[in-house]
Amino acid sequence: MSRSDFDLLTETEKMFIRKEHENKFISDTTWMRNAVLNAEANINRKKNKRFIELFPKTHKADKEFNENAIQTILEMEEKNGKSWVDRVYKANGMKTPQKGGK
């Protein structure tokens, strides 16, 4: 965005841009702080103690959401058949898999 484009914006639009810039700065600063604290914790850890991950992995599935999604898909298949699967493959430029494992 050039200076002339910025000058054409209303004060409200400029305020939103400033606020988003502030949010980005806070987010970047927070990530940097977390990385530094994690590095210090790993440097000063006791001998034979596990390394602390900066981004711990969480693989928790929402069971209720998954059950609702499965139920919705089964209802769609009852109502419309399974042609939607073929349309998804076709839209992605893929061949429909052959049935029977051949």
Keywords:
102 residues; mainly alpha; 4 helices; Phenylalanine racemase
List the SSEs and their pairings.
Elements: H1 3-8, H2 11-43, H3 63-80, H4 83-91
Question: What can you tell me about this protein's structure?
Answer:
It is a single chain. This protein is mostly helical and 102 residues long. Among the domains are: 8-45; 63-94, no CATH class. Helices cover 65% and strands 0% of the residues. It has four helices and no strands. The protein has helices at residues 3-8, 11-43, 63-80, 83-91. The longest helix is centred in the first third of the chain and has 33 residues, at 11-43. The radius of gyration is 26 Å and the shape is flat. The relative contact order is 0.04.
Strand percent estimate:
under 5%
Mean pLDDT: 85
Distance between the termini: 56 Å
H-E order = HHHH
Instruction: Estimate the helix proportion, in percent.
Output: 55-70%
Number of strands: 0
Biggest sheet descriptor: none
- Pick out the low-confidence regions: none
Radius of gyration: 26 Å
Give the helix/strand class: mainly alpha
Q: List the total number of helices.
A: 4
Shape: flat
Oligomer kind: single chain
Protein name: Phenylalanine racemase
Quick overview of this protein structure:
Among the domains are: 8-45; 63-94, no CATH class. It has 4 helices and no strands.
